[in-house]
Amino acid sequence: MSSQSAQAFQTLTRWADRVERFLLTILVTGMVILAALQILLRNIWHTGLNWVEPLLGMALLWLTMFGALAAAGLGRHLAIDLVAALLPRRWAGRLARATSLFAAVVCGLLAWAAGRYVGFQREMDLTVVLGLPVWKHYLVIPVVFWLMAARFAVRSFLPAAWLAAKTDEILPGEGRAAS
Prior knowledge:
Blueprint: H1 3-44, H2 52-74, H3 82-86, H4 92-124, E1 128-129, E2 132-133, H5 134-138, H6 140-157, H7 160-163
Antiparallel strand pairs: 1-2
Helix pairs in contact: 1-2, 2-6, 4-6
Protein backbone atom coordinates (compact mmCIF):
# COMPACT_ATOMS: atom_id res chain seq x y z
CA MET A 1 0.00 0.00 0.00
CA SER A 2 1.26 3.40 -0.86
CA SER A 3 2.18 6.27 1.36
CA GLN A 4 -0.44 8.32 -0.46
CA SER A 5 -3.14 5.83 0.58
CA ALA A 6 -1.97 5.97 4.18
CA GLN A 7 -2.12 9.77 4.11
CA ALA A 8 -5.63 9.71 2.64
CA PHE A 9 -6.75 7.28 5.33
CA GLN A 10 -5.27 9.42 8.10
CA THR A 11 -6.90 12.56 6.65
CA LEU A 12 -10.26 10.81 6.52
CA THR A 13 -9.78 9.60 10.09
CA ARG A 14 -8.92 13.11 11.29
CA TRP A 15 -12.03 14.57 9.65
CA ALA A 16 -14.25 11.85 11.12
CA ASP A 17 -12.76 12.62 14.54
CA ARG A 18 -13.47 16.34 14.10
CA VAL A 19 -17.08 15.71 13.09
CA GLU A 20 -17.57 13.40 16.08
CA ARG A 21 -16.05 15.95 18.46
CA PHE A 22 -18.23 18.69 16.98
CA LEU A 23 -21.38 16.59 17.50
CA LEU A 24 -20.33 15.74 21.05
CA THR A 25 -19.62 19.40 21.79
CA ILE A 26 -23.03 20.46 20.47
CA LEU A 27 -24.78 17.74 22.49
CA VAL A 28 -22.98 18.54 25.75
CA THR A 29 -23.41 22.30 25.34
CA GLY A 30 -27.10 21.95 24.55
CA MET A 31 -27.65 19.61 27.48
CA VAL A 32 -25.90 21.94 29.93
CA ILE A 33 -27.86 24.97 28.70
CA LEU A 34 -31.20 23.16 28.82
CA ALA A 35 -30.52 21.67 32.26
CA ALA A 36 -29.45 25.07 33.64
CA LEU A 37 -32.51 26.71 32.12
CA GLN A 38 -34.79 24.10 33.65
CA ILE A 39 -33.16 24.52 37.07
CA LEU A 40 -33.59 28.30 36.90
CA LEU A 41 -37.20 28.01 35.80
CA ARG A 42 -38.03 25.53 38.56
CA ASN A 43 -36.18 27.21 41.42
CA ILE A 44 -36.80 30.87 40.65
CA TRP A 45 -40.11 31.04 38.79
CA HIS A 46 -41.60 27.71 40.00
CA THR A 47 -42.36 26.57 36.48
CA GLY A 48 -40.58 24.52 33.86
CA LEU A 49 -40.66 23.17 30.35
CA ASN A 50 -42.33 19.76 30.05
CA TRP A 51 -40.23 18.69 27.10
CA VAL A 52 -36.78 19.32 28.63
CA GLU A 53 -36.47 16.13 30.72
CA PRO A 54 -37.36 13.74 27.88
CA LEU A 55 -35.07 15.64 25.54
CA LEU A 56 -32.19 15.46 28.04
CA GLY A 57 -32.78 11.72 28.42
CA MET A 58 -32.61 11.16 24.68
CA ALA A 59 -29.62 13.50 24.37
CA LEU A 60 -27.81 11.47 27.03
CA LEU A 61 -28.42 8.30 25.03
CA TRP A 62 -27.10 9.97 21.88
CA LEU A 63 -24.12 11.43 23.78
CA THR A 64 -23.26 8.00 25.16
CA MET A 65 -23.44 6.33 21.77
CA PHE A 66 -21.45 8.99 19.91
CA GLY A 67 -18.92 9.08 22.75
CA ALA A 68 -18.41 5.33 22.39
CA LEU A 69 -17.99 5.75 18.64
CA ALA A 70 -15.41 8.50 19.14
CA ALA A 71 -13.51 6.44 21.71
CA ALA A 72 -13.43 3.45 19.38
CA GLY A 73 -12.22 5.66 16.57
CA LEU A 74 -9.32 6.94 18.62
CA GLY A 75 -8.51 3.48 19.96
CA ARG A 76 -9.34 4.62 23.49
CA HIS A 77 -12.24 2.28 24.11
CA LEU A 78 -12.29 -0.15 27.00
CA ALA A 79 -9.93 -3.02 26.36
CA ILE A 80 -8.56 -5.89 28.37
CA ASP A 81 -5.01 -6.37 27.20
CA LEU A 82 -3.72 -9.02 29.58
CA VAL A 83 -2.88 -11.36 26.71
CA ALA A 84 -0.91 -8.61 24.97
CA ALA A 85 1.18 -8.16 28.10
CA LEU A 86 1.97 -11.87 28.26
CA LEU A 87 2.77 -12.52 24.59
CA PRO A 88 6.01 -11.59 22.82
CA ARG A 89 6.05 -8.19 21.13
CA ARG A 90 6.19 -9.67 17.65
CA TRP A 91 2.64 -10.97 18.15
CA ALA A 92 1.23 -7.52 18.98
CA GLY A 93 0.11 -6.71 15.42
CA ARG A 94 -1.61 -10.07 14.91
CA LEU A 95 -3.27 -9.85 18.30
CA ALA A 96 -4.50 -6.30 17.61
CA ARG A 97 -5.99 -7.45 14.30
CA ALA A 98 -7.65 -10.45 15.93
CA THR A 99 -9.15 -8.40 18.74
CA SER A 100 -10.35 -5.76 16.26
CA LEU A 101 -12.02 -8.45 14.18
CA PHE A 102 -13.62 -9.91 17.31
CA ALA A 103 -14.83 -6.44 18.33
CA ALA A 104 -16.26 -5.92 14.83
CA VAL A 105 -18.22 -9.18 15.11
CA VAL A 106 -19.49 -8.30 18.59
CA CYS A 107 -20.52 -4.78 17.49
CA GLY A 108 -22.25 -6.26 14.44
CA LEU A 109 -24.21 -8.65 16.68
CA LEU A 110 -25.09 -5.81 19.04
CA ALA A 111 -26.23 -3.69 16.08
CA TRP A 112 -28.41 -6.53 14.86
CA ALA A 113 -29.91 -7.04 18.34
CA ALA A 114 -30.45 -3.30 18.78
CA GLY A 115 -32.15 -3.17 15.39
CA ARG A 116 -34.51 -5.95 16.48
CA TYR A 117 -35.21 -4.06 19.71
CA VAL A 118 -36.01 -0.90 17.78
CA GLY A 119 -38.30 -2.95 15.52
CA PHE A 120 -40.12 -4.33 18.57
CA GLN A 121 -40.44 -0.81 19.95
CA ARG A 122 -41.91 0.29 16.65
CA GLU A 123 -44.51 -2.47 16.71
CA MET A 124 -45.46 -2.38 20.38
CA ASP A 125 -44.85 1.02 21.90
CA LEU A 126 -46.86 4.04 20.91
CA THR A 127 -45.02 6.42 23.24
CA VAL A 128 -44.24 9.79 21.71
CA VAL A 129 -41.36 11.95 22.90
CA LEU A 130 -40.92 15.41 21.44
CA GLY A 131 -43.42 14.68 18.69
CA LEU A 132 -41.66 11.56 17.45
CA PRO A 133 -42.24 7.93 18.35
CA VAL A 134 -39.65 6.71 20.86
CA TRP A 135 -38.34 4.08 18.47
CA LYS A 136 -37.05 6.79 16.13
CA HIS A 137 -34.92 8.21 18.93
CA TYR A 138 -33.54 4.72 19.63
CA LEU A 139 -32.33 4.28 16.05
CA VAL A 140 -29.04 5.82 17.14
CA ILE A 141 -28.15 2.57 18.93
CA PRO A 142 -28.04 0.19 15.94
CA VAL A 143 -26.62 2.89 13.65
CA VAL A 144 -23.68 3.62 15.97
CA PHE A 145 -23.04 -0.08 16.59
CA TRP A 146 -22.89 -0.65 12.81
CA LEU A 147 -20.46 2.26 12.49
CA MET A 148 -18.33 0.84 15.29
CA ALA A 149 -18.41 -2.61 13.65
CA ALA A 150 -17.23 -1.07 10.39
CA ARG A 151 -14.52 0.87 12.17
CA PHE A 152 -13.20 -2.24 13.94
CA ALA A 153 -13.41 -4.28 10.73
CA VAL A 154 -11.34 -1.69 8.88
CA ARG A 155 -8.86 -1.66 11.75
CA SER A 156 -8.48 -5.43 11.55
CA PHE A 157 -7.37 -5.35 7.88
CA LEU A 158 -5.26 -2.19 7.62
CA PRO A 159 -1.48 -2.13 7.98
CA ALA A 160 -0.38 -1.38 11.54
CA ALA A 161 1.60 1.68 10.40
CA TRP A 162 -1.62 3.34 9.23
CA LEU A 163 -3.16 3.03 12.67
CA ALA A 164 -0.21 4.28 14.70
CA ALA A 165 -1.25 7.35 16.68
CA LYS A 166 1.13 10.20 17.26
CA THR A 167 1.97 10.15 20.94
CA ASP A 168 3.02 13.79 21.05
CA GLU A 169 -0.22 15.06 19.54
CA ILE A 170 -2.65 16.55 22.05
CA LEU A 171 -6.19 16.59 20.78
CA PRO A 172 -8.62 19.38 21.64
CA GLY A 173 -10.40 18.75 24.92
CA GLU A 174 -7.71 16.51 26.36
CA GLY A 175 -5.90 19.19 28.32
CA ARG A 176 -2.19 19.65 28.53
CA ALA A 177 0.27 17.25 30.03
CA ALA A 178 2.15 18.41 33.12
CA SER A 179 5.70 19.43 32.35
